[in-house]
Amino acid sequence: xxxxxxxxxxxxxxxxxxxxxxxxxxxxxxxxxxxxxxxxxxxxxxxxxxxxxxxxxxxxxxxxxxxxxxxxxxxxxxxxxxxxxxxxxxxxxxxxxxxxxxxxxxxxxxxxxxxxxxxxxxxxxxxxxxxxxxxxxxxxxxxxxxxxxxxxxxxxxxxxxxxxxxxxxxxxxxxxxxxxxxxxxxxxxxxxxx
Length: 194
Description:
- Helix content is about 70%, strand content about 0%.
- The chain folds into two domains: about 1-90, Rna Polymerase Sigma Factor, Chain: A, CATH 1.10.1740.10; about 105-190, Arc Repressor Mutant, subunit A.
- It is built from nine helices and no strands.
- The model is unreliable at about 95-120 (pLDDT under 50).
- By secondary structure, it is mainly alpha-helical.
- The radius of gyration is 19 Å and the shape is globular.
């Protein structure tokens, strides 16, 4: 029911935008901007370039909005545009590192905890991402969509063109495969809070 209400709100905002209300666009994309920026950063691996690409993607989406058919949610549509713009950027950039941001090298930092604990958390995150990256693509990607990109089941289903039941079953299978892989290496169950 919440999804229907959200889509109705999105449709109303789109109509306002088509009628010339520029503020409605910021309202429409505002709640998704941070998630889309994180996705751009994960692909491009440079915060400033990711911001530029995101701005380009949002401008492209604004111009294309009159052609938006509403077959998917607005976030799913924006997500695709951002990913495509990131890929275009990587292809056209001469000094491109064509891999995604390596979460194993990201340092989780929280001033409220010690440096040692921050490094431990960073090592744990790196270990977990290494295990996730070792899964088959369809299982790896579904974990990334759900837990890194924070997509809903509906958004994932729209992106990979399957029904929600398939998303749920693949996610279940992905978690089981990940759990087995981690336990096989003697690590504990501390990773299985999802």
